[in-house]
Amino acid sequence: LSAHHFIAATACHEAEYGRQIRERCLRPFKLSMEGIGQRLWCDWDETMGTYGELTNCTAAVAENLACYWPNRLVDEFFVAVHSHYFRNCSPSGRALHDPPNSVLCPFILVPVLVTLLMTALVVWRSKRSEGIV
Amino acid sequence: MEKTTHSCFLLIILLIRMVPSLTATVNYTDPTLEPVVTENSVIRQKIIDSQFKCYERMNRAPPYRKKGLFCNRTWDGWLCWDDTPAGRITAQNCPDYFPDFDPTERASKYCDETGNWFRHPESNRTWSNYTLCNSFTSEKLKMAFILYYMAIVGHALSITSLLISLAIFFYFKSLSCQRITLHKNLFFSYVLNSVFTIAHLIAVVPNPGLVKRDPASCKVLQFFHQYMLGCNYFWMLCEGIYLHTLIVVAVFAEEQRLHWYYLLGWGFPLVPASIHAAARAKYFNDNCWMSVDTYLLYIVHGPVMAALLVNFFFLLNIVRVLVTKLRDTHRAESNMYMKAVRATLILVPLLGIQFVIIPWRPENRLAGEIYDYIMHILMHYQGLLVATIFCFFNGEVQGALKRQWTQYKTQWGQRRREHCSTRSTSYTATSITEVPVYLYHHDSNNEQLNGRYVDDSELVALKSGETSA
């Protein structure tokens, strides 16, 4: 058990890890993204595959160097990638989420108000029909 | 909607996903013939998705401004964790990547006093605590199955009792009056609601392949489901408005025109259901519209709650009028109306209470289970409750049934005795009085007359019973 710790402690050089992911992972990713074209960088359907490969690559390098994945360097690496390639994309555009409150509130309040109006109308009309009789 | 409907549905969805062996194999009906490792690549895709969103968030969120040590925001491989002050445990809901992970449980991560994330002592790597995510899943699965079958049984029982009540109301013409007409419409809407719910529970919920394919038919089913839910509560509102108009506005006068009630009960619920469908299609177009994790559901539930509230106030007003104003002047009628109102007054809170207590699911495990059972009974056995209170416990219905029963008994006795030739002449005398009682009172529609003639006709029934005995 302690041998394992020893290997883990000595085998994972952070500097080495940083260097390797930039060389072996970032370069193919750069080429691929340039191939896709800057216009489509925010299109998740296009970039999904490349991004997945980048992730797999960083994990593979971590395994080779006996580092655990993810780690602090991976965080920094991906934050840098995001700030360069995905900075202008709409945030969480691919998640299902509710519309903003300015849209949601009218959608909810209008049926409620119409309900109350309709109820008042029915009460008024049934009152009137009594008057006729 | 609220967390409990959320957790109810999640339990049901959880139980579906616990049958992975059936869905992980090759799907021969799918023309693209996906491979066996479909499940894994789908899971992988979800994780990559979450990772992307996490780094986006980490990039855009403002830097940590508070004083003191803190742990940096990080992606731990499954979930995103924000900047956390030192010495604090932060928690969030478990992810739903794996079939045995329960998204209602919490995963936690500890930031120690030195401003570093907790490292597991055995592996010395930063470690988040996901143990709660799959530790209770087998028990929850069992309970989810029980609740699922309870829901189906509840709706089946409701349909049966409602159809029997409708049969009673249609058969006994003597009972017909405007209020009974409203009851018939209410029962019919409950029957349709239960039918659509059972269809949804049996065809869509246990069928992840269908949900993945996301055909238009399951969205149409969901639309009709929401429409019928609206119809249920709006017909309850119609009952309340009818009683209110009858008692408070135009005291014990004659017939009202029912056209507006039909419009409010059957026509108006199309409005919130359509708006919900349009909003859902535009803003939250998930597969089969099954997710309950959206406030867009309030487009339907908001008007329903408004209707319940209005109904409740109408009924309170009716009780107030009956108790204060009519006590002295129209004593007999006010008693009878009190009985009529009592049934509606019991039902409206019972139907509405699920909306009130739904946000407060207890944290304790046992209390939470009891809460789930009670909520499921309140939600799925409503039709049975409505049929029982409005029909089976109704004095007039019971009287009509008793009369019919005694009539059948005497007819049966008469048929047996007709075989004996010695006593034929006396039976022609009794057969005249055996004419069904309700034929004499066929035309009365007024609630008031209904009340009065019940006593008369019961006396006649007793008399005819005596002569034939």
TrEMBL record, chain A:
InterPro entries: RAMP, RAMP_sf. GO terms for cellular component: cell surface; plasma membrane; receptor complex. The chain crosses the membrane at residues 101-124. It is found in: Cell membrane. It holds the Pfam family RAMP. Its main location: membrane. Belongs to the RAMP family. Accessory protein that interacts with and modulates the function of G-protein coupled receptors including calcitonin gene-related peptide type 1 receptor (CALCRL) and calcitonin receptor (CALCR). Required for the transport of CALCRL to the plasma membrane. Together with CALCRL, form the receptor complex for the calcitonin gene-related peptides CGRP1/CALCA and CGRP2/CALCB. Together with CALCR, form the AMYR1 receptor complex for amylin/IAPP and CGRP1/CALCA. PANTHER family: RECEPTOR ACTIVITY MODIFYING PROTEIN RAMP, RECEPTOR ACTIVITY-MODIFYING PROTEIN 1. Heterodimer of CALCRL and RAMP1; the interaction induces allosteric modulation of CALCRL function and CGRP1/CALCA and CGRP2/CALCB ligand specificity. Heterodimer of CALCR and RAMP1; interaction forms the AMYR1 receptor complex for amylin/IAPP and CGRP1/CALCA ligands. This is Receptor activity-modifying protein 1. It comes from Anseranas semipalmata (Magpie goose). The lineage of its organism: Eukaryota, Metazoa, Chordata, Craniata, Vertebrata. The gene is Ramp1.
UniProtKB/TrEMBL annotation, chain B:
One of its GO terms (biological process) is adenylate cyclase-activating G protein-coupled receptor signaling pathway. The keyword Nuclease does not apply. One of its GO terms (molecular function) is calcitonin receptor activity. Belongs to the G-protein coupled receptor 2 family. PANTHER family: CALCITONIN RECEPTOR, PDF RECEPTOR-LIKE PROTEIN-RELATED. G protein-coupled receptor activated by ligand peptides amylin (IAPP), calcitonin (CT/CALCA) and calcitonin gene-related peptide type 1 (CGRP1/CALCA). CALCR interacts with receptor-activity-modifying proteins RAMP1, 2 and 3 to form receptor complexes AMYR1, 2 and 3, respectively. IAPP, CT and CGRP1 activate CALCR and AMYRs with distinct modes of receptor activation resulting in specific phenotypes. Ligand binding causes a conformation change that triggers signaling via guanine nucleotide-binding proteins (G proteins) and modulates the activity of downstream effectors. This is Calcitonin receptor.
